[in-house]
Amino acid sequence: MRWEEGDLHGRHVRPGADVRGAIKWDPAVGRSRVRVRDCTCECMPVVYELCMAGGLSFIRKTTRVGVNVKVEEFTTRPNSRVHDLWNSLFDLPNKLVRFDSSGPQSDAEQHPTDDKG
User: Fold this and answer.
1) Which of 15, 34, 109, 111 has the highest count of CB atoms within 10 angstroms of its CB?
2) Is 69 helix (H, G, I), strand (E, B) or coil?
3) Using an 8 Å Cβ cutoff, are 13 and 38 in contact?
4) C-alpha closest to that of 48 among 23, 67, 68
5) Rounded CA gap, 88 and 82, in Å?
């Protein structure tokens, strides 16, 4: 297959990966230089980009609805946390992982159960 034939797509985010509230998105920050290291397919209304600026990583989320465009970011954090989130968009274990400024937390860590009898 050749790219020109239109049969090839980029990667798609796993369904439900960006469920409401699981990832804290912040308004996009203007930067003079950004390097896009990886991105998802642009055939979808939401496109994700793994970016680097100033030696730090962040994920940019662009949502397009008609002529409206909304750009948000999982703000700059240590590269390992950003890469964990990036990878979870494509292949997350069966448990929900929430991402915030302290890093990933499983659902059990977010909502501990009382095991006292």
Assistant:
1) 34
2) strand
3) no
4) 23
5) 10
Assign residue 6 a region (left: φ > 0; alpha: ψ between -120 and 50; beta: otherwise). Answer: left
Query: Residue 55: enclosing H or E segment and its boundaries?
Result: none
Burial zone of 85 (CB within 10 Å; 0-12 exposed, 13-18 middle, 19+ buried) = buried
Question: Domain residue spans in the chain?
Answer: 25-93
In this structure, the strands spanning 97-100 and 103-106 are antiparallel
- Does position 26 have pLDDT exceeding 80, yes or no? yes
Strands 68-77 and 56-65: what pairing? antiparallel
Structure confidence at residue 100 as a pLDDT band (50, 70, 90): low
Q: What is the pLDDT of residues 79-90, one digit of tens each?
A: 888 888 888 888
Is the separation of the CB atoms in 95 and 105 below 8 Å?
no
Q: Side chain identity at 83, as an amino acid letter?
A: H
For residue 74, give Cα distances in angstroms to 3, 7, 8, 19, 97.
31, 31, 28, 14, 14
